[in-house]
Write a structure and sequence with these properties.
single chain; 40% strand; PH-domain like; 364 residues; Immunoglobulin-like; seven-stranded antiparallel β-sheet; 12% helix; mainly beta
């Protein structure tokens, strides 16, 4: 009888341990601080993230709704931006940086955090997902100095950059994590994500394309990042053959934005049409982003303006040099077309001439 009771108790303990492992992940960590780092335990569960330490007033427990942003810098580095004020820094939101001393952030944990976070997260650890990319383009991610090489992959529900040189430079974006994208030059591509950087709510990732981005890939992204405007265009923006998914993109000379009025034959089917250069400009709380775009003379330009903020004077866009004046409804892309003539620098402004951006026209 005693043996049976002991066996039952051992079984219950083993079951509890397995259940605990299924519900959470526990790491010995170093809390990185300005003067002296502290050690403790970081616990990640489907309900919350906890930091436990013996140091006075340093332990924390956050529900996911209380976290501004989770940033997985690398498999052993995680950063948690909270809503907690730092009185010594004039109320600046407090950021907790942890270095894992045992174990690492796995694709499973990355997927859990992405599913539970109420706001976009930034991660260099790719969550475990299925399916091949629809488009795949080799690129170089440009840093302030130099850069690193990798592959930009476009999926039906996400975009990833997988660095072949710096694992911590890789990124995974759901389409809801992307504010905007653009192609300011023929072999340049930009993604603006909702990743906090130095106190700013967004971060721009600038890529140098090793080969041209196909027109269909541009439109494919457009449909998913700005879905409210172009539902009727979705069928035309599908890849030509699903069997080619995952293959390296082949050079295509056209790069066009979706039509703004009546349906028309897709640009990729009009091989005789001249090349079109495209750019996207957002109207934000701080002004135009980007504040400057570069175009080539003599090539039709399609510039898309998207107003992201209510009120203010950004409800109109004016380009005096090309006699353009258009209203900008909230969160609705507005495409303006013109062909730059002479080289030079020309302003685009709001209706009250208070917000200003710049068009640089030059040969490249």
């Amino acid at each position: 009888m005693k043996g049976l009771i002991l066996l039952v108790l051992v079984s219950m303990l083993l079951f509890a341990a397995e259940l605990d492992g299924a519900q959470g992940f526990e790491f010995l960590v170093e809390h990185q601080r300005l003067l002296r780092n502290h050690r403790g335990t970081l616990i990640i569960t489907p309900d919350r993230i906890e930091y436990k330490t013996s140091h006075k007033d340093e332990s924390r427990s956050w529900q996911y709704v209380d976290i501004q942003q989770i940033k997985i810098e690398s498999p052993i580095e995680i950063e948690i931006m909270t809503y907690e004020d730092q009185k010594r820094l004039l109320g600046r939101d407090r950021v907790f940086k942890f270095k894992l001393l045992d174990g690492e952030i796995t694709p499973e944990i990355s997927a859990l955090l992405m599913a539970k976070a109420t706001r976009p997260i930034a991660t260099s650890v790719m969550p475990a997902t299925a399916g091949a990319p629809t488009y795949e383009v080799p690129v170089k991610h440009l840093h302030s100095f130099g850069g690193c090489e990798g592959v930009l992959k476009i999926y039906p529900d996400r975009v990833t950059y997988e660095s072949t040189e710096k694992r911590e430079d890789s990124r995974y974006w759901r389409y809801s994590d992307i504010q905007q994208f653009g192609q300011p030059e023929r072999y340049r591509f930009e993604i603006t994500s909702f990743e906090d950087q130095l106190g700013r709510p967004t971060r721009v990732f600038n890529f140098q394309l090793k080969q041209e981005l196909p027109a269909l890939a541009y439109d494919y992204l457009w449909m998913r990042i700005y879905p409210s405007k172009f539902h009727s265009y979705e069928k035309a923006a599908q890849p030509p053959d699903e069997k080619t998914a995952g293959k390296t993109a082949q050079p295509v000379s056209e790069k066009v934005a979706p039509p703004t009025a009546q349906p028309q034959r897709h640009p990729a089917q009009q091989k005789s049409e001249p090349e079109v250069q495209s750019a996207i400009v957002a109207v934000t709380e701080t002004g135009y982003e980007p504040a400057s775009i570069t175009l080539r003379p003599g090539v039709l330009a399609r510039v898309t303006f998207v107003r992201k903020v209510e009120g203010g004077c950004g409800t109109e866009i004016v380009i005096p040099e090309y006699k353009i004046k258009r209203e900008l409804p909230l969160n609705e892309p507005v495409v303006v077309e013109f062909t730059p003539g002479k080289s030079g620098q020309f302003n685009f402004t709001c209706g009250m001439d208070m917000l200003r951006g710049k068009i640089v026209v030059e040969e490249r």
